[in-house]
Amino acid sequence: MDIAKSGIWKPALGCGISEQIPGYTLKYNAFFEKNNYFFTRARLIVEGGFVKLFPCITSSIFTGLMLRKLKKSMSSSSSKSKTDRTSFLAIFISISFIITEFPIGIVDLYKAIWNVDSYSENAQYIILICDAIFTMNSTIHCFLIFFMSAQYRRTFWNLVQYLNCCTEKKIFRVTTVQSSLQ
């Protein structure tokens, strides 16, 4: 991909800015345009299939297996509330990952297989919505885990205390001892 000048942005007359600012966009270079965008399509298939869809499918399978193990361990132990929290976190993390990544994988495969420009704007809207959900999810993720996991809180506070010790200046006292053997 190349960065190419796409035009000049001109501010409105009443906004008080007289400077014209050039606008840039990403464009496919000649390598990606060869053979009816073969390399672009190959990249989209790899990205959509292996980077987006495959992790969603395996995440679902592993979350299901983990919840099954948790349910078995819950029946044999008395720590029901800890298991319930862990189950909720595992389900929340898995579902939020699937909601944000699976549609992008479908859109990437769609763009790779059917090179139709009429749906590219709608596909871009789907990608933007999923990216916005991903950003919100990433923002609240650490807080959710902080409030639900005692081990996470303990590790966080230990890290904060360690960083606080690193920023304080420690005064070391050096004493010299003279030997009587001289």
UniProtKB/TrEMBL annotation:
GO molecular function annotation: G protein-coupled peptide receptor activity
Keywords from the named record: Membrane, Transmembrane, Transmembrane helix
Keyword Metal-binding appears in the UniProt entry: no
Gene3D superfamilies: Rhodopsin 7-helix transmembrane proteins
Record-linked Pfam families: 7TM_GPCR_Srw
Domain of life: Eukaryota
Record carries keyword Flavoprotein: no
Signal peptide bounds: none
Membrane-traversing stretches: 49-67, 88-113, 125-147
InterPro entries: 7TM_GPCR_serpentine_rcpt_Srw
Official protein name in the record: G-protein coupled receptors family 1 profile domain-containing protein
UniProt organism field: Caenorhabditis briggsae
Organism phylogeny: Eukaryota, Metazoa, Ecdysozoa, Nematoda, Chromadorea
